[in-house]
Design brief:
CATH class of the largest domain: Alpha Beta
Number of helices: 10
Number of domains: 3
Distance between the termini: 33 Å
Order of helices and strands: EHHHHHEEHEEHEEHEEHEEH
Shape: globular
Largest sheet: 5 strands, mixed
CATH superfamily of the largest domain: YebC, transcriptional regulation domain
Number of strands: 11
């Protein structure tokens, strides 16, 4: 069903992240390299690489930068060997937080992330300690002007998606995690490349956070997102729009 979306508030604040272009590029380069190393340099036969390329294009990454990252991964060149890891914990007001990383040193990453949680009134938990509060989904984002809300809903359902949430800035299409590649391909054929297409952790419910606690939550998310090893941060908080705007100004 279609509906109004608060996913930018709940998951992460994409607008703030987009201002950190150098860090965004660093994260996407890692995604490209790891995907190419795992499944080869041909995006037609490597769905993970195809999605990473789509995200690189959405971030306006230069073509030669993409090609170097893919070639490095596909060629198995010597260098840093990145592994995926997931960290889970609780932040201010007991919000649940999932942090996904690509790192060449899990001990360093775990230490840095644990320190960030502790500094802003949270604590790092065991893997699985909060994941049950989230659904693992495929998420495909298009700008609002890609289609009307009704058109996007129709295209998404035909492509095999489960839900569409639209607001004044964008459409977020969600689907079962295993169907992400197929749904993304079907929508691309109708609407062109999406702004992003990736697997996400979407909260089943949200926790209202206000005042000083809201400020601490945003500081924690900012510090985590600023970590070079961190690829994505997801949390189940909801801050009232007026307070969110004031804190981000």
């Amino acid at each position: 069903m279609a509906g109004h979306s608060k996913f930018k508030n709940i998951m992460h604040r994409k607008g703030a992240q987009d201002k950190k272009r150098a860090k965004v590029f660093t994260k996407i380069i890692r995604e490209l390299t790891v995907a190419a190393k795992a499944g080869g340099g041909d995006p037609e036969s490597n769905p993970s690489l195809r999605l990473a390329i789509s995200n690189a294009k959405a971030a306006n990454m230069p073509k030669d930068t993409m090609e170097r990252a893919i070639a490095k991964g596909a060629g198995g060149a010597d260098g840093d060997d990145y592994v995926e890891a997931r960290y889970e914990g609780y932040g201010p007001s007991g919000i649940a937080v999932i942090v996904e990383v690509l790192t060449d040193n899990k001990n360093r990453s775990a230490s840095d992330i644990r320190s960030s949680f502790a500094k802003y009134g949270g604590n790092l938990g065991e893997e699985g300690s909060v994941a049950f509060m989230f659904d693992r989904l495929g998420a495909i984002e298009y700008p609002a002007d890609a289609a009307s809300e009704d058109e996007m809903f129709e295209h998404a359902i035909e492509a095999g998606a489960e839900n569409v949430e639209s607001d004044e800035a964008s459409h977020e299409v969600t689907c079962p995690a295993d169907d992400l590649h197929a749904v993304s391909q079907a929508l691309t054929a109708k609407l062109g490349d999406p702004a992003s297409a990736k697997l996400i952790w979407k909260p089943q419910n949200t926790t209202l956070v206000e005042g000083d606690k809201a400020k601490s939550v945003l500081k924690l998310i900012d510090v985590l997102e600023d970590n070079d090893d961190v690829q994505n941060v997801y949390a189940n908080f909801d801050i009232p729009e007026d307070q969110l705007e004031a804190l981000m100004s």
